Amino acid sequence: MKRPWNRDSLSVFSLLTYSKNGDLNMNVCTYVSILNMHPKTYAISIEYSSLTYKNIIQNSSDIVLQRLSKKNINLVKHIGKKTGFIFNKKKFLKENDLLIKWKNHYVLRDTSYLIELEYLKKCFKLKDHCLFFFKINSYKNQKNELLTLTDLIDKKIIL
After folding, report:
1. Which partner for 2 in 6, 28, 39, 122 could form a disulfide, CB atoms 3.0-4.6 Å apart?
2. Are 152 and 14 in contact (CB under 8 A)?
3. Statement: the pTM of the whole predicted model exceeds 0.70
4. Looking at residue 6, what DSSP letter applies?
5. In the chain, where are the structural domains located?
6. What rounded mean pLDDT belongs to the chain?
7. Residues in contact with 146: Cβ distance below 8 Å, sequence separation at least 6, in sequence order
8. Cβ(27)–Cβ(11) under 8 Å?
9. Beta pairing, strands 63-67 & 113-125
10. SS3 state at 43
C-alpha cells in the first residue's frame, strides 16, 4: 500500500526560475497550494539542494508556475529527476522544441496553465524544504488535460 502522502492525486507543476545571470531552470513540484484569494497567494515548498532554491534566493524575480498537462508527462524525467546543477535543461528543451514564448519568459509547450508569480516571502524552513509565498501577477489558461501524481505513479516515472 502507498504511503498516505502518495495516495492523493496531487497536481504536478514546474517552476520556472532564472539564475542571477539569466540562465533558465525548471523543476517539478507537487508541494503547491493556493493560500489566499485577496491577494491571490500561492505557497510552494522548494528543496534546499535544488537549483530552483538557489535561483529564488539569488534572483527572486521572473518566476512562472506551470501546471503540467498529460502531454508533458515525458518531460518529468528531464526537468524533475535531473538536477539543473549538472543537466542543462534549457538546452534540452530548446533542442527538442519544447519551449514557447509567453510575455518575457520561455515556458513549456502544452501546459495546462501558466501563472506569473511575484516573490513575497521565504517563510518557513523545514528539514529538507523551504516554504515560500508568492503573489499571482498574471495568468494564462491553456489546456485542460491536467497531469497528476497518480499519472506519474501509473507510468512508473516515480515511486
Report:
1. 6
2. no
3. yes
4. G
5. 4-154
6. 92
7. 11, 67, 68, 69, 70, 112
8. no
9. antiparallel
10. strand
The residues, any chain, with a CB within 8 Å of residue 96's CB and separated by 6 or more, are: none
**N-term to C-term CA, the chain:** 12
At which residue does the C-alpha cell 498537462 appear?
Answer: 69
Options 2.30.110.10, 3.40.50.300, 3.30.460.10, 3.40.1000.20; CATH for 4-154 is: 2.30.110.10
Instruction: Say if CB 114 and CB 140 are below 8 A apart.
Output: yes
CB contact at 8 A, 31 and 44: yes
**Grid coordinates of 25:** 531552470
What would the pLDDT profile of 40-50 be if each residue is shown by its tens digit? 999 999 999 99
Pairing of strands 113-125, 40-47: unpaired
Amino acid at 124: F
d(CA 5, CA 45) in angstroms, rounded, equals 15
Closest CA to 78 of 62, 91, 65: 91
- Which pLDDT does position 1 carry in this prediction? 53
Q: CB within 8 A of 33, min separation 6: which ones? A: 42, 43, 44
